[in-house]
Amino acid sequence: MERPERAFIVALALGLCFLAAALSRAKPAWPLALPAAAWLVYGAWEQHLRGKGYNIRVDLLLIYPVLGAITLAGLVLHPILNHRTRIKRPQADQKTS
Predict the structure, then answer these.
(1) In principle, which of 40, 44, 68, 92 could form an S-S bond with 11, CB 3.0–4.6 Å?
(2) Nearest 5°: phi and psi at 29?
(3) Calpha distance 41→20 (Å, rounded)
(4) Residue 57 sits in which domain range?
């Protein structure tokens, strides 16, 4: 990646989504934290390699697909798990009443 700061921007965006989900009633929020952390680690890794002058493009073959899968899984799982949690809550409330 020519500009590792772009990975930090993606991490920040996902982190803000996680924070918004954690502070709202959208539970669980952890599916958004995992991709944010992955992008943060990737950005730090690329920044470290860039600082040493390395130009390794293994990220195009290995790291990008993994990051994409983690990000996609987090973005898909969050609404699914949030929907399931909302469905289970009213049923639990009805049994206690």
Answers:
(1) 40
(2) -100, -10
(3) 21
(4) 5-96
